Amino acid sequence: MSELKRIRELVERLPSDTSSDVISELVGLYLSAGLLDAALDAVKQWSANNPESDDGRVLAARVYLENALYDEVRSTLQQLDASSSAWRSGLLVEIDLEIRLGNFHLAEQKCADWRHSYGSGEELKRLEEMLDQQDADEEFDEPIVVTPTMADLYFRQGLVEKALLLYLKLLEQEPENALYQNRVKQIRGEQHGAEDAKNSLTPDNQRQQLSRWLLSIQRRRTHV
Asked: What tens digit of pLDDT does each residue of 77-100 get?
């Protein structure tokens, strides 16, 4: 099944989704393609229909984080119930936020607290890797490990020269990766506006279909 077809199916199922399974997969597809605005619209729609879901709040916080809406991340996480199963996931989003804001010592402390309370985990390891890489960069003033995580971190912190270097190396490994291509174009100033940036993430035939289809969905919602 093509990614576009799967997105269509998930969008149609979204209004009846109460378990967060549909919205989680849909947001994942949007984010993997770099369609941040679409992910934001989808999570807002789902959250409006499921306002009491802590799983939804954590997912919304992740999408806000990818859109660099840091105040919204904090305010959303503050609504979590400390006794809910989503609480620990929310703490990981908070650690990611502190890293992106450059609060590395605070993030390290929060990582230690999380490990003490909950043990290890893949997401915690990823965050600790980001912090370890940051420490290495502060010592040697150059990227040591080429990973998408570090490239994204540099990009969001405005360290565009380091980000460009990593994205170029990542493109050597994955020449067809649309997200890496788009980031390189953004950094080099070859794109003109956020809409062009978003459109360049998908092949022409799928991009046009997806854009028209999302627009038709929005129009139908407006007239409901």
From this structure: 999 999 999 999 999 999 999 998
112-138 core/surface letters (b: 16 or more CB in 10 A; e: else): eebeeeeeeeeebeebbebbebbeebe
The reply to whether 38 and 81 lie within a common domain is yes
- What is the structure's pLDDT at 143? 46
What is the domain count for the chain? 2
Do the domain assignments include residue 107?
Answer: yes
Q: How far is residue 23's CA from residue 32's CA, in Å, rounded to a whole number?
A: 14
- DSSP-assigned states of every residue in 91-130: HHHHHHHHHHTT-HHHHHHHHHHHHHHH---HHHHHHHHH
Q: In the chain, which residues have pLDDT < 50?
A: 140, 143, 190-198, 201
